[in-house]
Specification:
This is von Willebrand factor A domain-containing protein 5A. The protein has 15 helices and 33 strands. The strands form 7 sheets. Strands 5-4-9-2-1-12-15-14 form an 8-stranded mixed sheet. The N terminus is likely disordered. A hairpin with a 6-residue loop joins β7 and β8. The protein has 738 residues and is of the alpha+beta class. α2 packs parallel to α7 and α8 packs antiparallel against α9. The chain is globular. The N and C termini lie far apart (66 Å).
Amino acid sequence: MVRPSGLLTRQEEPVPLKSICVTLSIREFVAGVAATLNYENEEKFPLETFFVFPMDEDSAVYSFEAMVDGKTIKAELKDKKKAHIIYESAISHRHQAFLLEEDKCSRDVFCCNVGNLQPGSKVALTLKYVQELPLEADGALRYVLPAVLNPRYRCSGSPEDSCLDLKTPIVPLDDLPYSFSMTATVSSQHGIETIQSNCPLSPIEYLGDKKTSAQISLADGHKFDRDVELLIYYREVHTPSVAVELGNPKNNPDGLMKDPSAMVCFYPNIPEVEPSAICGEFVFLMDCSGSMQCPISKQDKSQLRIEAAKETLILLLKSLPVNCYFNIYAFGSSFEAFFPNSVKYTQDTMEEALRRVKLMRADLGGTEILTPLQVIYREPSIPGHPLQLFVFTDGEVTDTFSIIKEVRNHRLRHRCFSFGIGEGASTSLIKGIARVGGGTSEFITGKDRMQAKALRALKHALQPAVEDVSVNWDLPRGLSAKTLSPEQTVLYKGQRLIVYAQLTGTMPPEEETGEVCLNYTLQGKSCENKVTFSLQPKLDDNFTIHRLAAKAFLQSMDIGFGETPAKTKKDVLKVSIDCGVISSHTAFIAINKDVNKPVQGPLVCRDIPRPVLLGAAAQMPQCKRVVFGETYLVQLISLQNADGSWDLDEDLARILGISLKDLWSALPVKDADSSSWATVLAVVWLHAKAKHQKCEWELLEKKARTWINSNAGSIKKKLVKAAIAFTKSSVDPAVFGI
């Protein structure tokens, strides 16, 4: 990062950044974005401005250009160190210069420098990127344009020249001095079901008989005061596909851009199987830093992050399989382990963990994840119980690459599932540790419930391992495929798998087709998914598939500035520069060489204010504490025993809304085990009163039904029918297997 010197913007000074305009084009599950930053110098002296902003870490930034006085100056992508030298030389010689780079600490933070902005001049800077859109559990494609970049906790050993070190003016979300607008086009050959957003939209205009296209824009007056999120529901999203894109041999005689590239999208039809007898060791690493005291989102009555985290831990504890091992670590500037080592899951250990979870507070200072991670990895493995690590954090750290590297170094002995809590969570950290740790990543914002997303990850963790994963191509003679994506070792039911490949050799006539096959084994059984596709490549002026393929390669090989080995760095630089996709080792640089004379006058620095959520930093007022009482669902779940049963007592009676005396009187079989009756009643209550939250309790309910089958024996049918009649519910007895 080029270090600023000079004054910082104060509120009474003009801010050179006047507006941000975003144009978004979403085709199927790929987004193409052009973001234009409009600058104007209203002061009487030349300026150097610095704008630090967040980007999703999956974004492949491939273009950066400046429009100055009607002329376009296209930036070149160069080795980052060389780009800095060129920029500093231009500034010292009073020439106009523009620099765009990733932060040294994290892939999801960028800095844009504008040097020697002349008095009265206007400049429009446009950066372009493409991005795969993640698929949510309900079938929605999720696009997020990040706005919030919260201050990130600096750990010892972090790089000293991070963009995040800029003393950028921090303002409340509602007081940003620049305007924001976004327009979007969404298209799918399968038709659009609906589009939702966390921000007010102008009326959506659908086009085509089957609603194959839609035009969207943010409502007038929108302030860039929150992450902009779109949830796009197509009529069909689980259709496997292959797209082949023409290369650019004229401008790229060698390298990745020369040949056609293919993008393969699989939706593996992984069959339902019974969980493996191997239980696992489940370790939960929970952020208890001060920023966890903030609400998850700006929305009214949004739950505090720490309260949602505590509820989630209770659900996870109750959903763990019998005979597994577990531990919980709370971390901030320091960390606390609930137990010295992972312990066997019993009634006593579960109750002790539950007691400590209820006492958790967001009072452990900063966010230091690396040290507790290292402690967890130093613990000896438990034979027959593979490690499953769950990391919950609002992701406000600066040592992102060190953390990812630590998880990557231990990838063969565990799986890592990560959760980004609240707006501003680092996508680089959350996605990065899940990617290298063979798990899944989730983000909890807006009205999302952390509980549901955490339980979905636990289901993935309990799945039997999908092994021997391979992708095989059947192509005409003279044509071959070289896979560019990192080797896939983990597959989960309901997830999409995207594979990129470079096609080399002689392309056949139009009528020829190819076939690509995904092979894997599950519990000793061989499975395959095949897709047949046309080998006629299509032209795309933006080379979208090539850029995405380059990004996939860079994500797997580029492990951060200062972390990537020298040999690998050479390959990273070549792919990055050849394909024009920025990496941690490259930067975009543009010099306006047409200015007739050097800029006159002393250069003054101006840093662009950036938004943070209120209370996210010490500079801002503390979050107002809002405590939400435990719901009846959480209370009921808290009463469940480790083996899946419930006790017939006053606490259960209070939640059911029936006196304990009446519950005993209604016991349909004299001398029957009261726990069997209590457990059946609890399961009936879950289905009758909390059906809409089934995704949060289905694992612990399954454990309860297993217990009923083992303990109620021949009277199970009587207990179930009596419970349904007594509670006057319409629950189908079939849920109990009757």
